[in-house]
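User: Fold this one for me? It's HTH psq-type domain-containing protein.
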Amino acid sequence: MSSKNQNYIRVRYYNNHMLQVRPVPLKMDKRKYSKDQLTFASKEVRSGSLRQHGAAKKYNIPKATLHIVVEHLVSKDVHFEKEKRRLEKLLQECFSDEEDVNDFEPNGTSDEFKPESKNEFNSDSSEYYPCKKKKVLTKILKV
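Assistant: Here's what I get for HTH psq-type domain-containing protein.
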């Protein structure tokens, strides 16, 4: 592959009911079009008020460039939703047993959560945690 071809990406979009593959320069939107044009056009397409060709004509952007931006934003939204569902699932796993949550008393009156000596507190036992699944909690906190 030559260096000239590396600057291009293949984009598919509908034109006259035919699926076409057309090379589009990757740096095109950075050079010729302002960020505001692309932002407003992609917002209108994603909200459903305009189709891609209408937004491209209104903001004077090539359809293929607008298509790249919209597809990129949609894929980011899908990734965000997947991460959100994954975290919700982890939280449900962690607090699925109501006994674990109800046994924890933050004022410290419960003997179950008090360490008897410093060595026991430093040990890696799960009896001092409100949720017995420590690994799930640490995963959630790292994210």
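One thing worth pointing out: The helical segments are 3-6, 28-32, 35-47, 52-59, 63-94, 98-103, 118-122, 134-142.
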